[in-house]
Design a protein that fits this description.
Oligomer: homodimer
CATH superfamily of the largest domain in chain A: Translation initiation factor eif-2b, domain 2
Number of strands of chain A: 18
Strand order of the largest sheet of chain A: 8-7-6-9-12-17-18
Order of helices and strands of chain A: EEEEEHHHHHEHEHEHEEEHEEHEEEEEH
Helix content of chain A: 25-40%
Largest sheet of chain A: 7 strands, mixed
Number of helices of chain A: 11
Number of domains of chain A: 2
């Protein structure tokens, strides 16, 4: 991804291996501070996933793979390391997928982890190319949360088609849901789009419906886990946007690599929804906003039924939810 | 409303006349600080409405009436004063209704303004009594923004039925949308419910859809303006909640006094939507949250079509949108 730091534009990933450690852009510090975290052990990696230094389902997958590589280098029992890493966040499927892959490898896991990260990036590039065909000149696109390069090692899922269309010279405008409670839209998606020179405006999550009525041409979101029937989990609030898009006939696309699909899960009912700390709602950037003594409920994800999905944008093409089963059987061969 | 200040519980209104001035709870300072603003002129009143010291359609109506009374006392041309007060906020109908009423009076406007405020409160009490019949023991109710006592001089519109049901001994749980960008739910509704001893949890606006799928029994919101066909304007985000409630078969009620109905407006298309400062989105409590250089769009209201409204809870009873025209003709006689 392009990152503008004190005047320079550099190209970098969200996380990478360097000098016997994993380096990662600290996503908690963005957009105001640009800091690189150094992660030396699988327990530090588990902590970096839990506290959202690294976030976004495909980036979490790569973090899981690199966490296993760190454990190998540090001569830790790999089953124990896998258990620690799996316990960090329950919803994203990529994490379990990546750890399973690493567990099936022999020897030093550094190269396999690098290959996993490379494969995430090349899948995202293909998602971008495939999805960009949906984007015409002057389109206005709504996105929710951050399914950009930060969330996917590089390039993005939901943002990938937008990046490719923009680089191809098409004019695109992005409505960026700020995405409470953690504001990944206002902080991370806005930061990525600004770095890339793509036109956008941040909106309160509440304003998405208003703009879906007559300004938004298309919605593109990412996903944390997609069931075999096309129901999918994504950042809390995605479900509302999908229902309102459906009400207004606005096409609603989910962009995700095949590693986010969980063919063993028949429907969205089986997806575990992570409940995070009430303080993420009651405080914003450590400033208390809610009335004293308030309790809060803070589900991190919701599940959107497949009937609201116009299509899934994957590295192997765009397909409809009702064709998902055939597609997955073909794709997994 | 009940207000707990340093141990004491006192009963007070959101605004009232005292010593040749208007006193108002400064809603910008809540919930962390409890401050009473003193407003001595109609221009100070216009400022208090614009900057949201006083907010909520019925409270803004009373503020308009008191602003006219201040102008009379200060020997200001009443047509000029009316123009200044009307220019503060374009969406709430009560403001125009109240100023029209004051303009039709002769002599000192202090008593007429008091009567207007009293009438708002007694209407809200009747809304509470009428609406409480919908609320059964152990119900979970979602509300958006603050349509409580602060917004309505006293008692509330959306919160009035909840107050009455609670005082009648029914157990009620309220999901409080935090209501970005200004967080009136987290700050004001939570404060009112805590003062009243009603059980609640604050949620990110994004989480409302998740809970509408299987936990919320009923939605009650207020309104800023209701057209003759039942389309209504309310705080941004209301439209999304209405669509998602409809998708899930959750009853959706609008609680408002007749002064919020604008029978001259055929549908919601004619409602002017106030665009407020982008800084309300880009900053939270003066802390910048969005990426540097970001633009934001900040519509303060949205319009919900009447087809999503199960019923309107008014001081004269509960009625359906498709019966609105007959009802308004009868009620206005």
């Amino acid at each position: 991804m392009r990152v503008r730091t004190s005047g320079d534009v550099v190209d970098m990933r969200a996380l990478w291996w360097e000098d016997e450690a994993v380096k990662a852009i600290d996503q908690r510090a963005l957009p105001h501070d640009f800091e690189i975290a150094t992660i030396r052990t699988h327990t530090e990696m588990a902590e970096a996933i839990s506290n959202m230094t690294i976030r976004g389902a495909p980036s979490i997958g790569a973090a899981g793979a690199y966490g296993m590589a760190l454990a190998w280098r540090n001569e830790i029992n790999l089953e124990d390391a896998a258990q620690t890493l799996r316990a960090t966040r329950p919803t994203a499927y990529d994490l379990f997928h990546a750890i399973d892959l690493m567990s099936s490898e022999d020897g030093d896991l550094r190269r396999p982890a690098d290959r996993y990260a490379d494969s995430v990036v090349s899948r995202c590039e293909r998602i971008g190319t495939n999805g960009s065909e949906l984007i015409e000149d002057d389109m206005k696109i709504l996105t929710h949360c951050n399914a950009g390069a930060l969330a996917t090692v590089d390039f993005g899922t939901a943002l990938a088609p937008i990046r490719v269309a923009h680089r191809a010279g098409r004019r695109v405008f992005v409505f960026v849901d700020e995405t409470r409670p953690r504001l990944q839209g206002a902080k991370l998606t806005a930061w990525e789009l600004a770095n890339e020179g793509i036109e956008y405006a941040v909106i309160a999550d509440n304003a998405a419906g208003h703009y879906l009525r007559d300004e938004v041409d298309m919605v593109i979101v990412g996903a944390d886990r997609i069931a075999a029937n096309g129901d999918f989990a994504n950042k809390i609030g995605t479900y509302e946007k999908a229902v309102v898009a459906g009400e207004n006939g606005v096409p609603f696309y989910v962009a995700a690599p095949l590693s986010t699909f969980d063919p063993a899960l028949p429907s969205g009912e089986g997806i575990v929804i992570e409940q995070r700390s009430p303080d993420e709602v009651l405080f914003i950037d450590e400033v208390r906003v809610a009335a004293g003594g308030s309790n809060a409920l803070n589900p991190a994800f919701d599940v959107t039924p497949s009937k609201f999905v116009t299509g899934f944008i994957t590295e192997q093409g765009i397909f409809r939810a009702d064709n998902l089963k055939n597609f997955l059987e073909d794709a997994r061969v």
